[in-house]
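Can you give me the bound-state structure? Components:
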Amino acid sequence: MFPRAPSGRLELVPYLMAGYPDRRRSIENGRRMAGAGVAALEIGIPFSDPLADGPVIQKAGQAALEGGLTVGGAMEIAAAVGGPAPLVFMSYINPILAYGPDRFASDASSAGVAALIVPDLPVEEAEALTPVFRQAGLDTVFLVAPTSTDERIERICAASTGFVYCVTLTGITGVRADLPAGLDALLGRVRARTELPVAAGFGISRAEHIAALKGHADAAVVGSALVAADDPLPLLEELLKACA
Amino acid sequence: MPLRYGVYGGRYVPETLVSPLDELEAAWRSARADPAFQAELEGQRRDFVGRPTPLYFAERLSAHFGKARVHFKREDLCHTGAHKLNNALGQALLARRMGKQRIIAETGAGQHGVATATVGARFGFECTVYMGTEDMRRQAVNVERMRMLGAEVREVTAGTRTLKDATSEAIRDWVTNVRTTHYIIGSAVGPHPYPEMVRDLQRVIGDEARAQYLEAEGRLPEVVVACVGGGSNAIGIFTAFLDDEDVRLLGVEAGGAGVEGGRHAASLVAGRPGVLHGSLSYLLQDADGQVLPTHSISAGLDYPGVGPEHALLRDLERAEYLAVTDGEALEAFQLCTRLEGILPALEPAHALAAAARLEGRVLLCLSGRGDKDLATVLAS
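Here's the bound-state model for the whole set.
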């Protein structure tokens, strides 16, 4: 999806909640972010019970649902954003099961989506679904966490295509002041087990975080800080500057 | 231990929790097989919980119903007033064995929160209980009890502000503090191994009741009936009878204002399979897979999901599930109070309402006492 970052550089993967603050502005923000020189754009499909998310993304998702956003609507938003950066869907498993995994995979692919992240689908539970997603041409990105054993990291890397998502901390999404201790070691354990680029996510919001991740990760995912901003572009541009 | 019940169950959780769930499963296996652990559990059940709880013949209620001879398994007589302590006690002993310093829980009616706060005090854990603001209003007395027992009650204002949202918030806390904290889930729901562990800890209800019933009546009951929210008291009493093929197992869900109108919490009656809180089971959800708001007069049954083993028992037709409305449960509450001198909780009042229509020998799990529900009953 995107290459491993050359030393001294980092790629950026911003997050957009589909349908937030409303349909029109989420398409507009998506287009601006996808055209700003990012490695990929993550588009979140809202879910009523997002277990891995902190208050900012929870509230944005709830607002999107109250605004009438459906899974089909998220597909339309992805198609309208269009790129140029590759688009990655982030969805909890239940909306995918309700939509029908086959139909979800082929509609997402038709909408121009390149990859899928399912935060409540660990590799064991994904065995039956991964072939469905791959057949439609979607990359399957799995998550590594600080609690993952080396055996699990191996397995997660083997099941992933596109990139591997490394959760930086034991916790939920949301802005934090500092990156957690021990993150470099965790990223090193992951990078030693895959040729794929490794994206770090959760708690990343500042230029200092970006600087600290250089040389340890290939990309940084930034979610809550961008979702919380009235206009995500100024922060995105500041972070992109720090990436170079 | 099997990871699934048929297609149901599983572990649909963030990666952060997978290794801790593996550790929990291993710890539970080792504890369950350890005679010293079992002996301690047995001793605490006897001296702290007050087990075995009695089997009681509800003579006047049976006469009133007409065709049923109803016995109660008196879980309302457990310390803290409900079956919830059976589970909280066992998990607290396990948490201590695992070296955890902190326990957390979600609660709806407050009974599981009180049970968790109680074992927190008894064994010296730091304790946090998540509760929706709507339930804190409905169950104010239990909030005070938990605080008096030293627990911190954190209010949950997300979503419908009831049990579902409290459970989500407790899981988020666990994801964050998993290294020091044990999450005492309150029902037979959640990711593997929780449904199995909670069943193992609650099956004492059915194991005792089966032996007591045989002793009292000389044969088995024809129907075993229990209310089902997440389904822990029901799976606790059903398990002992699963191999007794002639014994009908009847689970009673919250029909709220009526299943037809959509304001209810009857997931097995009106839901379809989906994933909530880490496992696949019957779920009240819209066409897009968004979890629906529920309604029940009983906070303990006000939950859109249900334990995965009940989903399998439903599909296998080994157990039957039906729904009883708020009004029917209230009527059964009054009847039981006046005829038996026992105030049932509004949760088992649903089972009582279903028992009124049964015939023959009925064993009913009276899962908790109704003192906590007086304000709700008076207001209705």
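A couple of observations. Chain A has twelve helices and nine strands. The two ends of chain A are 19 Å apart (CA to CA).
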